[in-house]
C-alpha cells in the first residue's frame, strides 16, 4: 500500500507540473493575441497613409488636365502664324510700291542702285517667305498631329476618369463590406472593436483602406478563432487532467483508507498475537510448574535412595581402609618378592648364557661344516658353472622380422632355453638361464644383499638368497676370501651384453663393482679375526698383446712369467696393482682404467669388442690368531666378441684382429676340451688369455662363464654357436678344487712354514678340518712340493 501511495503521490506531482506548464502556455497564447492586434493596428495606420497619398495624386492629376504641353505648343504656333501673316501683308505692300517706282525709269539714278539692292533684298525676303511658308505648312501638319494627339489624350483622360469612378465605386463597395465586417467583428474583443470604431470615425479614405484590411482582419480573426479552439482544447485537456487528478486524489484517499484499515488490522493481529504469546507463556509456566513438581518428587526419591546408599558407602569406606592398609604393606611384600624373583631370574639368565655359549659353539661348528659341505657341493657340481643371459631386444636391433624374438624359455625349468633357428627349435641346458627381464638390479642386488648381510654368514645367505645364479656368483666371490682362485667370464658375440653384465652402467653397476662391494663387506665382517688386503689390476689383451690399463705406459706390452720362486705360479711383471679399501677407491680405479682405454683408441666400442678386458682382484688375508695366510684371486673377464669374422672376407688389421680373437677363443675351447677329457696336457700356452688364466681354469679354481646371447632373429646363428660353446664348457669337470693357503708370512719364510705344516701330516690323509683344503705353496724344493701338491689335490 505504501508503495502504491508513494507512486500515486509521484503521479500527482507530475500532473501538477503538467498543469503549470499548460497555464504558462495559455498566458503565452494571450500575449501572442495582443501582439497580433497591435500589428493589425499598425497595418490600419499605414493603410490610412496610403489613402492620403492617393487622394493627393488624384488632385494633382486634375490640375494637370487643363494645359498639356501639346496644347501650349499649338497655341504658340497659332500666334506665330498670325504674326507671320501680317508680316507677309506688309512685305506685299512694299513690293507693290517698289514695282510702281520701277515703271518710271530713271537711268543712272541713285535710286536704281538702291532699287537693285532692294530687289535683291526683296528676292531674299521672298525666299525667306517661301521658307516660312514651307515651315508654316510643316507647323500646320504638326498642329494637326497635335490636335489629333490631344483628342487622343482627351479620350484617354475620359477613360481614366471612368476608371477612377469605377475604382471609387469599388472602393466604396469595399468600404461597405469592411463596415459590414466591422459590424460583425463588433462581437470581437474590445480592443479590436475600439480600433474599428476609430477607423470608422476616420476619413472615408481610411474606410476604403479598412476594406482592404478587412479581409486580412478576417484571416487574423480566423487564426484567433483557431487559437481559441486550441485554447479550448487545452482547457479541455486541463479539465481532463484535473479530472484525472481528482480521480487520482480519490484513489489516493482510497489507498490511504485502505492503508489505515490495514494498519488497524495489523494492530489487531498484533494484539491477538500478544495475547497468544501471553497465553503460551502462561501455559509453559504451568507446564514448568508441573515438571518442577515431578522433579521435586524425583528428588524426594533420590533422597530416599541416598539414604539407602549410605550403608553401602559405609561398607565401601571400610573396604577402602582395609585396602589402604594392604597398600601400606605392599612395598615390603613387593621387595621381598622382587628379591626372590631377581635371584630366580639371574639363575635363569646364567642358565641361558651357558646354553647360549654352547649353542654358539655348536653353531660355529655347524657353520664350518656347512661351508665345507658347500665347498664340497660346488666341487662335486664341477668347477665350471655356465649361465646364460639373454639381453632384451633393443632399439639397435631395428624393426621387422630381423628383430623378432627367437629365444623362448621353459616355464618349469630355469636352466633350459629354446632357440628357433632356421625354423627348428633347438633346446639348450645350462646351469641357469636369465631371461631378458632379469634386471641388472636383480643381479647386483643379490651380490649387494649378500654384502650387506656380510659377516661370513654364508649359510644364512645361501638359504636366504632366492636366485641360484646369484648364490653362485656370491659364493664364488666370497670363496676368493677363503683363498680360492675364481674366474668369471662373459662370453658372447658383440652386442650381446657382456660389458653390460660385467661393468654395467653408472646407475646400474654390473658384477665387477658389486663383487668388490661384496668383498669389502665380507672382509669387514671378518675384521675381528682377519686382516685383509685387496688389490686390483686391470689389463687388456689385444692382438695377443697384454697391456696394463692402470699403468703409466699403457702401450707397453707385458709378459706373463713364471714365478721365480719356482712355485709354478704365474705373474706379470710390471702390472700395476692398486690397493683398494672402499667403493670410492674402486670407482676411481675403474674410471682411471676407462679413461686410459678411451684415450688410447679412437673407437672404444669397436676396440673393446676386439679385445679381452680383465679385472684381476687379489685378496690376501692373515688370521691374526693362527697366523694362517690366504691368497685368493678373482678374475673378471669381458671377452672379445665371439662372432666369426673370417667369413666376411675381412682384410688387413681387421683380419688380424679376427684371427687373434679366433685364436684366443679357440685356445679357450681347446683348454676346456683338454680339461674335460682329462688329458695330460692342457694347452694353456696356446694363447695369452688361457696362459694368463691358467690359475683360474686349472684344478685350483672355480670358474663361472656367463654366456651372453641376443634374442634377435638376425643373430640366431651366432646365438647358436655361443650356446653350443656354453654346453661344451658346461660338461667339463675340472676335478677337485684346492685352496691356496699358506702358513707364515708371504713371501719369505713361507716354505719353511709350509714344510713344517706338511711334515706334521701324513701324505694322502684327508684335509685338515677347517676352511677347505690347505694347499701349500712349494718353495725351492719344487719337485717335492709339486708331488705333495698333487697328493693334496687328489685327496681333496
Ligand atoms: P657387448 O659388450 O657384448 O658388446 P654390451 O654390453 O655393450 O654388449 O650391450 C649392447 C647393448 O645392449 C648396450 O646398449 C647395453 O646397454 C644393452 N644391453 C645388454 N644387456 C642388457 C640387459 N640385460 N638389459 C638391458 N640392456 C642391455
Ligand atoms: Mg663390450
UniProtKB/TrEMBL annotation:
Family matches, as InterPro entries: Kinesin-like_fam (IPR027640), Kinesin_motor_CS (IPR019821), Kinesin_motor_dom (IPR001752), Kinesin_motor_dom_sf (IPR036961), P-loop_NTPase (IPR027417), Vik1/Cik1_MT-bd (IPR031852)
Basic residues compositional bias, start-end: 787-796
Pfam families: Kinesin, Microtub_bd
Highest taxon in the source lineage: Eukaryota
MF (Gene Ontology): ATP binding; microtubule binding; microtubule motor activity
Keywords: ATP-binding, Coiled coil, Cytoplasm, Cytoskeleton, Microtubule, Motor protein, Nucleotide-binding
Keyword Membrane: no
Subcellular location: Cytoplasm, Cytoskeleton
Coiled-coil blocks: 5-188, 231-283
One of the GO biological process terms: microtubule-based movement
Annotated Kinesin motor domain residues: 383-732
Comp. bias (Polar residues): 777-786
Primary location: cytoplasm
Any one of the GO CC terms: microtubule
SMART domains reported in the protein's UniProt record: KISc
Amino acids binding ATP: 492-499
Stretches the record annotates as Disordered: 760-796
PANTHER family attached to this UniProt entry: KINESIN-LIKE PROTEIN KIFC3, KINESIN-LIKE PROTEIN KLP-3
Similarity remark: Belongs to the TRAFAC class myosin-kinesin ATPase superfamily. Kinesin family.
Stated name of the protein: Kinesin-like protein
Organism: Pomatorhinus ruficollis
Amino acid at each position: 500500500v505504501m508503495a502504491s501511495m508513494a507512486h500515486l503521490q509521484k503521479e500527482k506531482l507530475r500532473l501538477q507540473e503538467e498543469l503549470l506548464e499548460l497555464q504558462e502556455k495559455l498566458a503565452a497564447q494571450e500575449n501572442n493575441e495582443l501582439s497580433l492586434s497591435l500589428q493589425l493596428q499598425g497595418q490600419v495606420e499605414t493603410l490610412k497613409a496610403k489613402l492620403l497619398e492617393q487622394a493627393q495624386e488624384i488632385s494633382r492629376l486634375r490640375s494637370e488636365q487643363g494645359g498639356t504641353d501639346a496644347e501650349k505648343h499649338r497655341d504658340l504656333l497659332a500666334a506665330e502664324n498670325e504674326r507671320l501673316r501680317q508680316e507677309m501683308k506688309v512685305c506685299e505692300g512694299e513690293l507693290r510700291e517698289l514695282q510702281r517706282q520701277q515703271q518710271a525709269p530713271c537711268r543712272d539714278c541713285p535710286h536704281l542702285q538702291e532699287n537693285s539692292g532692294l530687289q535683291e533684298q526683296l528676292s531674299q525676303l521672298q525666299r525667306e517667305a517661301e521658307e516660312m511658308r514651307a515651315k508654316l505648312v510643316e507647323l500646320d501638319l504638326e498642329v494637326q498631329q497635335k490636335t489629333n494627339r490631344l483628342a487622343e489624350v482627351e479620350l484617354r483622360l475620359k477613360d481614366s476618369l471612368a476608371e477612377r469612378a469605377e475604382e471609387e465605386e469599388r472602393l466604396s463597395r469595399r468600404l461597405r463590406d469592411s463596415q459590414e465586417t466591422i459590424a460583425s467583428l463588433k462581437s470581437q474583443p474590445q480592443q479590436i472593436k475600439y480600433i474599428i470604431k476609430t477607423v470608422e470615425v476616420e476619413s472615408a479614405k481610411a474606410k476604403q483602406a479598412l476594406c482592404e484590411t478587412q479581409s486580412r482582419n478576417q484571416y487574423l480573426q480566423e487564426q484567433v478563432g483557431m487559437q481559441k479552439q486550441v485554447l479550448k482544447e487545452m482547457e479541455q485537456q486541463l479539465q481532463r487532467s484535473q479530472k484525472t487528478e481528482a480521480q487520482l486524489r480519490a484513489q489516493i484517499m482510497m489507498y490511504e483508507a485502505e492503508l489505515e484499515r490495514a494498519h488497524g488490522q495489523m494492530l489487531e493481529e498484533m494484539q491477538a498475537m500478544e495475547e497468544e504469546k501471553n497465553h503460551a507463556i502462561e501455559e509453559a509456566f504451568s507446564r514448568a510448574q508441573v515438571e518442577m513438581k515431578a522433579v521435586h518428587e524425583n528428588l524426594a526419591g533420590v533422597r530416599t535412595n541416598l539414604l539407602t546408599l549410605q550403608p553401602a558407602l559405609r561398607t565401601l569406606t571400610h573396604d577402602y581402609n582395609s585396602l589402604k592398609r594392604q597398600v601400606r604393606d605392599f612395598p615390603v611384600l613387593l621387595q621381598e618378592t622382587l628379591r626372590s624373583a631377581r635371584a630366580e631370574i639371574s639363575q635363569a639368565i646364567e642358565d641361558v648364557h651357558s646354553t647360549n655359549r654352547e649353542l654358539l659353539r655348536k653353531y660355529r661348528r655347524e657353520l664350518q661344516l656347512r661351508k665345507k659341505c658347500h665347498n664340497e657341493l660346488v666341487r662335486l657340481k664341477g668347477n665350471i658353472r655356465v649361465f646364460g643371459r639373454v639381453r632384451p631386444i633393443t632399439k639397435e636391433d631395428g624393426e621387422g622380422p630381423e628383430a623378432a624374438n627367437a629365444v623362448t624359455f621353459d616355464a618349469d625349468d630355469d636352466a633350459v632355453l629354446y632357440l628357433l633357428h632356421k625354423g627348428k627349435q633347438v633346446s639348450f641346458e645350462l646351469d641357469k638361464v636369465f631371461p631378458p627381464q632379469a634386471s641388472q638390479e636383480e643381479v647386483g642386488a643379490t651380490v649387494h644383499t649378500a654384502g650387506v648381510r656380510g659377516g661370513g654368514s654364508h649359510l644364512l645367505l645361501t638359504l636366504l638368497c632366492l636366485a641360484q645364479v646369484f648364490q653362485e656368483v656370491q659364493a664364488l666371490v666370497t670363496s676368493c676370501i677363503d683363498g680360492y682362485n675364481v674366474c668369471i667370464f662373459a662370453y658372447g658375440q658383440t652386442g650381446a651384453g657382456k660389458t653390460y653384465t660385467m661393468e654395467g652402467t653408472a646407475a646400474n653397476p654390473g658384477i665387477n663393482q658389486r663383487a668388490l662391494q661384496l668383498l669389502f663387506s665380507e672382509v669387514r665382517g671378518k675384521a675381528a679375526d682377519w686382516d685383509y688386503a685387496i688389490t686390483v689390476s686391470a689389463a687388456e689383451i689385444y692382438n695377443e698383446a697384454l697391456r696394463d690399463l692402470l699403468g703409466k705406459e699403457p702401450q707397453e706390452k707385458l709378459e706373463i712369467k713364471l714365478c721365480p720362486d719356482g712355485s709354478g705360479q704365474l705373474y706379470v711383471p710390471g702390472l700395476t696393482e692398486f690397493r683398494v679399501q672402499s667403493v670410492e677407491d674402486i670407482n676411481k680405479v675403474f674410471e682411471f682404467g676407462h679413461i686410459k682405454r678411451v684415450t688410447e683408441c679412437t673407437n672404444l666400442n669397436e676396440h673393446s669388442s676386439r679385445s679381452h678386458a680383465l679385472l684381476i682382484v687379489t685378496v690376501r688375508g692373515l688370521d691374526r690368531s693362527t697366523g694362517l695366510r690366504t691368497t685368493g684371486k678373482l678374475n673378471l673377464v669381458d671377452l672379445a666378441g665371439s662372432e666369426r669374422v673370417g667369413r666376411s672376407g675381412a682384410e688387413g688389421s681387421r683380419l688380424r684382429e679376427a684371427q687373434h680373437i679366433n685364436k684366443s677363443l679357440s685356445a679357450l675351447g681347446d683348454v676346456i676340451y683338454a680339461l674335460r677329457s682329462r688329458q695330460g696336457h692342457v694347452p694353456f700356452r696356446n694363447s695369452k688369455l688361457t696362459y694368463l688364466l691358467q690359475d683360474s681354469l686349472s684344478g685350483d679354481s672355480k670358474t663361472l662363464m656367463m654366456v651372453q646371447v641376443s634374442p634377435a632373429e638376425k643373430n640366431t646363428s651366432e646365438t647358436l654357436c655361443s650356446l653350443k660353446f656354453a654346453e661344451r664348457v658346461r660338461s667339463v669337470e675340472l676335478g677337485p678344487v684346492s685352496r691356496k693357503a699358506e702358513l707364515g708370512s708371504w713371501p719369505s719364510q713361507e716354505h719353511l712354514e709350509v714344510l713344517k705344516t706338511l711334515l706334521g701330516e701324513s701324505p694322502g690323509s684327508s684335509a685338515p678340518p677347517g676352511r677347505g683344503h690347505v694347499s701349500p705353496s712349494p718353495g725351492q724344493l719344487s719337485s717335492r712340493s709339486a708331488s705333495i701338491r698333487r697328493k693334496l689335490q687328489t685327496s681333496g
